[in-house]
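ok so i was messing around last nite and threw this chain in just to see what happens. nothing serious, just curious
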Amino acid sequence: MKVIDQLKKQAERYGVFRLTPTWVPRTFCRPGKRIKLHPDDYFALGLTRGGIDERWFASATKADNGPGTPEDEGLSYIIFDDGQKMLFKDAIAAMGSDMLGFAIWDKYGGWPMFSKFFDNAGPLPHHIHHHDRYARLVGQMGKPEMYFFPSQMNNHFGEFPFTFFGFNPETSYEQVKSALMNFEKGDNNLLGLSSAYKLELDTGWDVPPGILHAPGSLCTYEPQAASDVYAMYQSVLYGGQTVPVDLLWKDCPPEKRGDFDYLMEIIDWEENVSPEFHEKHYMVPKLVAGVDTMAKDGYREEWICYKTQEVSAKRLTIGPGCEAIIRDAAPYGLICIQGRGEINGAPLESPTLIRYGQNTYDEYFVSMNAAVEGVRFINHSKEDIVILKHFSLNPDLNKL
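result:
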């Protein structure tokens, strides 16, 4: 059967699409080894490509890992019952609004977000994601993102479970520019101008474009816009690891390379030095409906990422032996991080261990029609099923 016929059959039979694991290496990171990949496989792509410290979900976005990056790195695949595969982005192009609904399809002409686990042994550099106006100069889109730290994915906290955000309120423009100009001279001490926050399990942070952030060492669930645009502003990491200067100028137009005022322009200054940063950007789960109403139906659902319209996320918990029909106003990707059961009659299972190249039953994409009609989840296990759901535009956010 042709793959396009398989796509139509899958849409009619389940309304949901099973996705294969999408692993992404980073040369500048050290894997934290909490994303269920087999211990022997974290360097499956070779030392020159770096360790695998990310798994991407519902991605139609190519990873930007420089020369030598395979054409499909970062891209999700749909897998059908007979083992045939199809790029998720090609399925979206074929189904259009039938897959995504008119609001998303008419505005973006594709799926404008993805989510990931990023899992590092130590902290990442203080870095920035560009607003649309700067990202467009290098053919990308701006990148808002949000963080959530699931208990199920954090059996250890890594080397530094603290994240630096922005700058201290008294920091001056000249201090930051001087730090950037000293990038190649050693530790530019950018973190000396910033404040760190202790990371707490099952909470999260909103990180708009233009905000400097140095993520700590918890395994992080990260819904974000469909872009891999960034620049690293910190030169030496905790523990002495150095950052290549090319990453300072990453996603910088050629004519702006060497222009430190341009790097400063990318920074949203007022937000970075805001004394109310924690109040504005810290997130705790918020119930979608009343506790009693959901408990009666054997489930619990919470917003976990909700401070921007472009991307958002929920956590869905189905009790042992329970069955629930869950309706949403938008299509979404999902990753099951605990338990096993069914989703619209298809197997759903969170694996204990995954070999590189192995297919799993823990990740799906739910089409617009299926989301609105309602997805039937059944829990066959003796523990909760826990699912993280990632959305693009979702009108239900307005009910918060």
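not much to say yet. The chain has a mean pLDDT of 95.
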